[in-house]
Fold this sequence. Notes:
Blueprint: H1 22-31, H2 33-48, H3 52-58, H4 60-66, H5 81-107, H6 110-129, H7 134-162, H8 168-193, H9 201-207, H10 210-222, H11 227-232, H12 236-247, H13 253-267, H14 272-275, H15 282-297, H16 300-305, H17 307-313, H18 318-346, H19 348-373, H20 383-401, H21 404-415, H22 418-450, H23 453-472, H24 484-487, H25 505-514, H26 522-525
Helix pairs in contact: 1-8, 2-7, 2-8, 2-10, 3-4, 5-6, 5-7, 5-22, 6-7, 6-9, 6-10, 7-8, 7-21, 7-22, 8-9, 8-18, 8-21, 15-21, 15-22, 15-23, 17-18, 18-19, 18-20, 19-20, 19-23, 21-22
Amino acid sequence: MAGGGFSNSGHGGTHFEAKITPIVIISCIMAATGGLMFGYDVGVSGGVTSMDPFLQKFFPTVYNRTKDPGLNSNYCKYDNQGLQLFTSSLYLAGLTATFFASYTTRKLGRRLTMLIAGCFFIVGVVLNAAAQNLAMLIIGRILLGCGVGFANQAVPLFLSEIAPTRIRGGLNILFQLNVTMGILFANLVNYGTAKISGGWGWRLSLGLAGFPAVLLTLGALFVLETPNSLIERGHLEEGKKVLRKIRGTDNIEPEFLELVEASRVAKEVKHPFRNLLQRKNRPQLIISVALQIFQQFTGINAIMFYAPVLFATLGFGSSAALYSAVITGAVNVLSTIVSVYSVDKLGRRILLLEAGVQMLLSQIIIAIILGIKVTDHSNDLSHGWGIFVVVMICTYVSAFAWSWGPLGWLIPSETFPLETRSAGQSVTVCVNLLFTFVMAQAFLSMLCHFKYGIFLFFSGWIFVMSFFVFFLLPETKNVPIEEMTEKVWKQHWLWRRFMVDDDDDDDVDVVKKNGHANGFDPAAQL
């Protein structure tokens, strides 16, 4: 079966022969369990922080405030920096670990980096489940964060490099699908453990994170290393052997030679992080950084971290809050599956733009309802209105799940050339975790001060990011990774101006002179 290669009739492209082999599917599924671990960590924190026994043991001040009928604001019940640090410390640690993960990904390979991530996860889970004090709890979260840093660095690269071009988007989104499944799994676990008498349910919630941690570790032991990584590290024959195995054909010479050439160019780059700042690499860097910032300012992680807390703030009972979080988690999973099937058919831009409209409208509607029904001192959110708020949050979550969630990871992983790919992915993960940390640390305080306006704050950002996508994000559907520069960046109305060597002043002048003739054509970008 011939590979899909690049099928844009406007540009042409290379068709590499490739079958969709079982070994590729299995490898991608096992590698994507790194997303399962990440998602579980995102989902479990909001659940345990809404459990009274957990709050009594580690955050008694917050517990007393939630039980205080004279509290001056419904929106400020959970506003506590220590409670937010429990959630956000994981992402700060992941941010730091990313820099080390960039080195191991490049020098030791994608597979070994995933194994290191699994080991960090396992140790962190043990400390969290056995925590006797806040320090032990935070140290466990920091180790989990190190695992997140290593996994988020290696897994998207692994998936992009091992997948055939025509299904690269779908297989890469397995990572995000596993993130959403991890969140749903955590919500279900929290819903069950909250009902355990004896006050130890939160330990079970934190301890069951060991399940995805073990899956990732075992997966890393059995998956194949990517041909790109093997060739990059000088193992040419082994790289060719693996390429033949994963493509299911003997006709792999054209793709192999392209990988060898890309590796040769990559080895000429002695300082990949410095090289990222070169003019020709700025478009990929700008797009990747912007996508990570925008992904967090959709507000999704703030809502998924604290979904039970948020619903409790809006007047839902503890059990109802956890139940509502399960519903949003299920919508998250189902909508991500939509993205798996549509991203390589509809393209990246269409999904992002449609989702922008859907998220914007749902956030504004939520803000209006809460502004009218939930005040500082009273909660008039009736059963019917409460259900409607959950529906609107699900509408918002579904849009994110088939757009900014998976594509925020997919697009950066497929746009950097090999010589800067590891460094580019490191910056991508670093920026993502930095802003995830900011949102995790600030959300409950923002909720206290902005109240219902928090949803208007996020909707404003959604408008900005949709504008950015429409004008500045090129389509990367069905383009082989090593041909992104020629087929994508050099064809874009703005970014082609950067696709020249830094010292090639004559070419820069030519591009500038021709810029008007080949200016922006909105229709061409769709």
